[in-house]
Every structure is written in structure tokens, then in C-alpha cells.
């Protein structure tokens, strides 16, 4: 059974659609994912099977489906799945997608196959046991396949708080975020996630920070330089320390060696 403590976004679907996916923040996520996948030519030469675990409204999945790939999208939230169904229908991609209502823990019971690509984006930080989730995701990847993991970075949160004058150890969430239910349960330490992936036997090919420029830049400067310039800067420095360590999100792209 899915743990009742894992976050379900049925009550926040509209807010996420409007305040995350429909904003520059969401666009920067998509820029980074596109670039990282393209760097390793994932899905550029052959049609792939993909599992979008905790796929939400399926923005990135829909882009991959539009290239002819076959997607299985699962999510614990009924409302998120309905949003994803509407998006795929709007784009005429129904033949390239199947939807399953389940949590991460239920994936082994729901899918009796392995996939060329497994994606888990902005989900781990909402789970009670992210280490167990990574094990489940790893098992769903074919040998010779890829695991794409994006998660909320504890260092980015702390740095943002310090820059806003919170000169103390940060709480799990701000009072506002806790009240509105949008604070990740446990922002993750990137090195810990990296070590978990290595221990599973994965080869971490790419470690990239997302929104290390945007989130720490004053709004007036954002408006002046524009999103395209910010995205170019994030692309240039996103794989380098210390910049990637201050990002709001981290994306790790991992290869599963063939046996």
C-alpha cells in the first residue's frame, strides 16, 4: 500500500499548474531536461519506452511522446492525472501514453516490464523514504537504460533563506509554505542522492543545478536581462561547482550498465 504520509497533490493541482508549470521556473526545468537528454542523444535515434514515475501533468513526457516514444505515466494524484490526460489529448498524443493511478511504492505491482528510460522529477523530496523509492526506480530501468532524477536541493533552500535574512538553521518550511501545503517534506542533499545512485550500480553521467541563477537574482534584474539570457547562463555554469550546489533543484542523469 502507498504510505499515507507521502504527499498527494489532489488539493493543489491548479496551484501547481499556474504557479510552477506556467511560469519561468517551470520553463527553466524544461530547458535543463531537454538539454541534458539531448547531450546524451536519449531518444534521438530510436523509439523508446518510458516510465514517468510521479509524472504529474506530464509536461516533459508530452514532449517525448511527440517524438514518437511510448510513455507510461503514473501518479498518486487523480487530479494530476486528469490534467495530464487533458494535455495529451489537446496535443493529439493519446496513442503514445498510458495512465496509471499509483504511488511510487506500488510501481513493482503495476508494471511487469522494465523501461528504456525512467523519470522521476520533483517527487523524491515529497516521499517518506526516498532511498527506497530510488531502489524501486532502479529496478524498473532496463540494462543499458537511463534513470532521470530531479529533486529539491537542501543547499539551495538554505542559501535562499540566508540571502533573505534568515540567519539561522532553516526550518523544514516557512510558515506560509507549511500552511499552504507546498513545502517539500525533506529537501535532499545532492551528494547523498549521488551516493545512493552509485551504490545501486548506476553511472551518474550528468549532475546539474537548476535555478541557481534565477532564484537568487532580484526580480528587477530578471526582467531586465530576460529569461533566455538566464537560461543560457544556467546552461553554461549548471554543471560546475559551486554554482550547481546552490541550485533550487538538481537533475542527475544516470546510465544503467548492461550486464
Summary of the model, kept short:
Helix content is 40%, strand content 19%.
Kindly list the characteristics that best describe this protein:
Rossmann fold; seven-stranded mixed β-sheet
How do the helices and strands line up, and which of them pair or pack?
Layout: H1 13-21, H2 24-39, E1 49-53, H3 59-65, E2 70-75, H4 78-90, E3 97-101, H5 107-110, E4 115-121, H6 130-139, E5 141-152, H7 154-163, H8 175-180, H9 190-200, E6 203-210, H10 219-225, H11 227-237, E7 249-255
Parallel strand pairs: 1-2, 1-4, 2-3, 4-5
Antiparallel strand pairs: 5-7, 6-7
Helix pairs in contact: 2-11, 6-9
Q: Mind explaining what this structure looks like?
A:
The protein is α/β, with parallel strands linked by helices and 259 residues long. It has a single domain (13-255), classed as Vaccinia Virus protein VP39 (Rossmann fold). Helices cover 40% and strands 19% of the residues. The protein contains eleven helices and seven strands. It has helices at 13-21, 24-39, 59-65, 78-90, 107-110, 130-139, 154-163, 175-180, 190-200, 219-225, 227-237, and strands spanning 49-53, 70-75, 97-101, 115-121, 141-152, 203-210, 249-255. Strands 3-2-1-4-5-7-6 form a seven-stranded mixed sheet, with helices on both faces. Strand 4, helix 6 (130-139) and strand 5 (141-152) form a beta-alpha-beta unit. Helix 2 (24-39) crosses helix 11. The two termini are 31 Å apart. Mean pLDDT is 88; it is low at 176-181.
Amino acid at each position: 500500500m502507498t504510505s499515507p504520509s507521502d504527499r498527494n497533490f489532489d488539493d493543489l493541482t491548479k496551484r501547481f499548474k499556474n504557479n510552477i508549470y506556467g511560469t519561468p521556473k517551470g520553463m527553466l526545468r524544461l530547458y535543463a531536461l531537454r538539454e541534458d537528454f539531448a547531450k546524451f542523444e536519449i531518444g534521438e535515434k530510436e523509439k523508446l519506452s518510458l516510465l514517468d514515475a510521479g509524472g504529474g501533468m506530464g509536461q516533459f513526457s508530452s514532449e517525448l511522446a511527440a517524438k514518437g516514444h511510448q510513455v507510461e505515466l503514473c501518479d498518486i494524484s487523480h487530479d494530476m492525472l486528469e490534467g495530464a490526460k487533458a494535455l495529451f489529448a489537446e496535443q493529439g498524443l493519446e496513442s503514445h501514453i498510458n495512465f496509471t493511478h499509483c504511488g511510487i511504492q506500488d510501481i513493482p505491482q503495476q508494471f511487469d516490464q522494465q523501461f528504456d528510460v525512467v523519470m522521476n522529477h520533483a517527487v523524491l523530496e515529497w516521499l517518506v523514504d526516498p532511498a527506497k523509492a530510488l531502489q524501486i526506480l532502479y529496478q524498473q530501468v532496463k540494462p543499458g537504460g537511463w534513470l532521470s532524477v530531479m529533486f529539491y536541493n537542501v543547499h539551495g533552500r538554505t542559501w535562499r533563506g540566508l540571502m533573505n535574512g534568515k540567519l539561522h538553521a532553516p526550518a523544514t518550511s516557512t510558515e506560509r509554505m507549511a500552511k499552504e501545503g507546498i513545502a517539500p517534506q525533506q529537501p535532499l542533499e545532492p551528494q547523498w542522492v549521488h551516493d545512493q545512485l552509485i551504490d545501486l550500480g548506476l553511472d551518474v553521467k550528468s549532475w546539474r543545478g537548476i535555478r541557481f541563477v534565477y532564484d537568487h537574482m532580484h526580480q528587477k534584474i530578471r526582467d531586465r536581462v530576460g529569461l533566455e539570457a538566464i537560461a543560457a547562463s544556467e546552461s553554461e555554469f549548471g554543471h560546475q561547482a559551486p554554482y550547481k550546489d546552490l541550485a533550487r533543484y538538481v537533475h542527475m542523469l544516470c546510465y544503467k550498465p548492461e550486464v
